[in-house]
Amino acid sequence: MTSGLPKAPLAGGCQCGAVRYAIASDPVRLYICHCRECQKQSSSAFGISLIVPRAGFRVTEGSTKSWTRPAESGGRVTCAFCPECGSRLWHESDPQAATISVKGGSLDIPLDLSAVPHLWTVRKLAGILIPEGAPQHPKETG
Fold it and tell me: How many CA atoms lie within 13 A of 59 on its CB side?
């Protein structure tokens, strides 16, 4: 899905402001994920992922720490976070791919999520309403 995507340049950072980043390339995908890992990483009902080209992403202030976990796909995911406040900022596949997954809540601008695809809806929490017309996928899509 490409409609409704924000345009570069974009910027964001952690909750305490110690880490800042800039995105110079237009994002390629935006989605909401209801899998258990996204629920845990966001401490909420779902995670918001903005997929951006790695080449257009850079940290502009501070530095992050990271940890790596297994992915449902069988691969591995490296998770970057602020060492001061713990805010999750982005995920990247291990080994590295051409894109990274920026956590939507870390952007400076609010995202329009009204028509964004929802993944892993089989794990959606009861009571969460998905907007009418928004694409829904029971599991992950390619």
Answer: 14
